[in-house]
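for the recovery benchmark. tokens below, seq after
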């Protein structure tokens, strides 16, 4: 069974390690960003499939959007780099992060959104295999609510606080930009975490199962995808 994934106080998607002093990685994304799709489908999926928390990972869906507060309706309105459909996808991802903690579902959306003509509703249905009405209801209830709108505002504030953000995806390590770490993470977040002495992946003394070398040759599958 997949390891539980916990949300931080900032309500960002987190894979945390409370016992070891490990780096924090924040990745700023957009729901229709080609390079985000590649990063999620490769580096992030590889780490997720390793099924052990080696550090802290936060995904922040907002990107190069803009927001404006509408006092008449007491809510924020958004415009996104790739159009309003991307804003819809960002909100869907934000609600999944905030209310479900489900990184596997986020990954599945990225794996399939361009296969489904950028239709997030169809993609969500396929990722949930049309049989999880309770989870689907939670997502849509969040998206329609002021709560969901405020969640997106939180993601906006977090994103706008990054002064170096000029492109998406944008990677911040321990609250700072590190170009070398960014390149390593884009190649393999798993390897980046495993390079820290606290994470002895090759010895896997703290794992109790699949060693790193074996895992590299026998990747498990995202549970939201059919074999």
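predicted aa per position
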């Amino acid at each position: 069974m997949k390891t539980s994934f916990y949300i931080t106080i900032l309500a960002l998607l987190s894979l945390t390690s409370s016992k070891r002093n490990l780096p924090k990685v924040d990745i700023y994304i957009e729901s229709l960003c080609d390079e985000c799709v590649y990063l999620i489908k490769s580096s992030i999926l590889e780490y997720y499939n390793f099924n052990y928390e080696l550090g802290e990972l936060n995904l922040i869906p907002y990107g190069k959007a803009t927001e404006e507060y509408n006092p008449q309706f007491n809510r924020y309105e958004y415009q996104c780099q790739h159009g309003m459909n991307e804003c819809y996808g960002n909100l869907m991802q934000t609600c999944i992060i905030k209310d479900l903690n489900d990184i596997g579902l986020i990954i599945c959306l990225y794996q399939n959104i361009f296969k489904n003509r950028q239709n997030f509703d169809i993609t969500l249905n396929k990722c949930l295999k049309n049989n999880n009405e309770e989870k689907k209801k939670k997502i849509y209830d969040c998206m329609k609510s002021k709560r969901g709108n405020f969640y997106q505002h939180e993601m906006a504030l977090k994103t706008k606080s990054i002064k170096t953000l000029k492109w998406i995806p944008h990677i911040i390590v321990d609250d700072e930009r590190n170009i070398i770490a960014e390149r390593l993470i884009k190649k393999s977040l798993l390897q980046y975490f495993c390079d820290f002495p606290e994470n002895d992946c090759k010895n896997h003394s703290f794992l109790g199962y699949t060693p790193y070398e074996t895992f590299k040759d026998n990747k498990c599958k995202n549970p939201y995808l059919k074999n």
